[in-house]
Write a structure and sequence with these properties.
CATH class of the largest domain: Alpha Beta
Order of helices and strands: HHHHEEEHEHHEHHH
GO biological process, one term: DNA integration
Strand order of the largest sheet: 3-2-1-4-5
InterPro entries: HTH-like_dom (IPR025948), Integrase_cat-core (IPR001584), RNaseH-like_sf (IPR012337), RNaseH_sf (IPR036397), Transpos_IS3 (IPR048020), Transposase_IS3/IS150/IS904 (IPR050900)
Radius of gyration: 21 Å
Number of strands: 5
GO molecular function: nucleic acid binding
Strand content: 5-15%
Structural class: alpha/beta
CATH superfamily of the largest domain: Ribonuclease H-like superfamily/Ribonuclease H
Organism: Deinococcus deserti (strain DSM 17065 / CIP 109153 / LMG 22923 / VCD115)
Protein name: Putative transposase
Length: about 260
Amino acid sequence: MSGYHSWRRRPICDRKEEDALLEQRIQEVHQRSKRRYGAPRIHAELHAGGVRVSRKRVARLMRASGLRAKGKRRWVRTTGSSHTMAVCPNLLERRFEVSQPNQVWALDLTYLPTKEGWLYLAVTLDLHSRAVVGYAMDMQMPATLPLAALQMAAGRRLPPPGLLHHSDRGSQYASGIFQAELARMRARGSMSRKGDCWDNAVVESFFSSLKRELLEDTIFETRDVARQAVFEFIEVFYNRQRRHSSLGYLTPLEFERQATAA
């Protein structure tokens, strides 16, 4: 309380000057995140940079400046479970908290609009840190698309036998070539219950963030432009810079480093 009363006793002009300087820092963080951050993440970023300020004050100054995070949008699912191929049981059972990297991965597909048509995106996430460990893009979505995302992740991470790999029941994941790759990796397959997006909620949340923070009202001119934007979002921003509330406002790679150093 003494700090609060000390602040209250300062001349109004001094407090206004402090607010103006802080507002400038907030605007810098907001612009650096490409308007993706709201008050909680901006507060965490300021705190990491040594700026001691309350989240309420950050929120107040953001409102005064008209700053806000990009809003949510609704999107259509891309995969379907209307096929006759065998499906895996739901071994994950929504246990999304994972103690170490490369124990549980989750994969899903989505699409991005371009003026040339859809660009389909497959991503593989490590549920421990929410890091994107593999991804692939194509103008169509055959079984080879998620397979490429899985193979990128496997090549980067070299997971041990017993990895649990979760997806929905889409035909791409039930296909022979995808299941053969899981077997070659000695990984266990797990699939969501039919029509239940909450069984793969972490990847759904990633897609929601990507489309909210990357697209907003944008339609990319070409698929190549969209590919580059996705690459930069994942490799430059999401894994290395984006602070996650579920990780104590650490980035995915910071969270992993702390886990492996412990």
